[in-house]
């Protein structure tokens, strides 16, 4: 399934399998924790998509690298 998330006026698509709606629902709360983290906000500009796998959000950068963030 696909949805999108907006953080700092930029939307990014979220891809997740059925049954992972809880992790998708918790992701905006997790991102709010990083709202004052300048380094994360700088990296957010390079993120092209987010994939949810179990309780982990996998942020895909435009250069192919990934950032793993535990959501739950």
Spans of at least 5 consecutive residues with low confidence: none
How large is the share of residues in beta strands?
35-45%
Number of domains: 1
Radius of gyration: 11 Å
Task: Say how many strands there are.
Answer: 5
The outline comes out as: globular
The largest beta-sheet arranges its strands as 1-2-3-4-5
Largest sheet: 5 strands, mixed
Q: Percent range for helical residues?
A: 25-40%
Provide mean pLDDT, rounded. 92
Number of helices: 2
Structural classification = alpha+beta
Instruction: Please provide the ordered H/E string of secondary-structure elements.
Output: EEHHEEE
How far is the N terminus from the C terminus? 19 Å
Outline the secondary-structure elements:
Layout: E1 2-7, E2 10-15, H1 21-33, H2 38-44, E3 47-53, E4 56-61, E5 66-70
Parallel strand pairs: 2-3
Antiparallel strand pairs: 1-2, 3-4, 4-5
Q: What do you see in this structure?
A:
The protein has helices at 21-33, 38-44, and strands at residues 2-7, 10-15, 47-53, 56-61, 66-70. The chain is an alpha+beta fold and 72 residues long. It has one domain. The protein has a 5-stranded mixed sheet with strand order 1-2-3-4-5, covered by helices on one side. The longest helix has 13 residues, at 21-33. It is globular, with a radius of gyration of 11 Å.
């Amino acid at each position: 399934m696909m949805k999108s998330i907006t953080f700092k006026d930029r939307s990014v698509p979220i891809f997740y399998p059925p049954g992972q709606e809880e992790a998708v629902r918790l992701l905006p709360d997790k991102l709010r924790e990083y709202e004052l983290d300048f380094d994360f906000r700088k990296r957010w500009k390079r993120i092209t998509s987010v994939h949810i796998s179990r309780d982990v959000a996998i942020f895909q950068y435009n250069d192919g690298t990934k950032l793993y963030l535990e959501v739950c």
